[in-house]
What we know:
Layout: E1 5-14, E2 17-27, E3 32-36, H1 43-50, E4 56-63, E5 66-67, H2 73-79, E6 81-84, H3 96-103, H4 107-111, H5 113-123, H6 125-129, H7 140-153, E7 158-162, H8 170-185, E8 190-193, H9 197-203, E9 206-211, E10 214-220, H10 227-235
Parallel strand pairs: 3-8, 3-9, 6-7, 7-8
Antiparallel strand pairs: 1-2, 1-4, 4-5, 9-10
Amino acid sequence: MTDALEVDGLSGGYDDYDVVSNIGLTVGASERVGLFGPNGHGKTTILNAISATLARRRGTVRFFGQPVDRARPQAIVAAGLIHVPQANTVFPDMEIQETLELAAWTPRARAARAENLDRVLALFPRLAERRRQLARTLSGGERQMLSIGVGLMCAPRMLMLDEPTLGLSPKLKDELAQAIATISAGGIPILVVEQDVAFVLSLVDRMYFVNHGAITREIGRRDAVDHDEIMAMYFGAGATA
């Protein structure tokens, strides 16, 4: 079966500086894969380079076997590779339902708009209860639900999520983990960036460790990785909690 995403030799960054280099990763057609590592080491940049929201200087990106490394962001969205960025980037003065409906702008998404809206509101009942409220009236967790809902309204064939639990309480993290698992169970492959290693390990099939702009290790769910080893990976040998 063709992988959902194949990235090989990808390099990119800002201005003349490469933040990430020679990135290689895959996401299977029904797989959940995580990216983790210290802040500022390139995880978000990898997602931005894949989705072409920053310039790629080298490397190839294939989406369900088709090259997209020279495609513009609009074409990547239209193909169904949907990037939900960090920090709840929603329009504050738009109603929740209006925000969700506006997201369904591609032909594929418009054709499934009513079905996907029902699915999003069933997945996130809080949004259903508040559908006529302005986005700025939502809590941080609810705005994160709305951001993911916007991604689902784009009729994704794959989702890339950038730190979906950032700043959330443990209860909301659990709710969001359940929602992401439900999305994946529906057949949508997922690539998720996350700082909370316990959270991402509970959610994904594999994960890649990103260190100084490079992927330096791949870890499967069944691999025995203890807390001290994670601390050493983040902070160097000899680190302790």
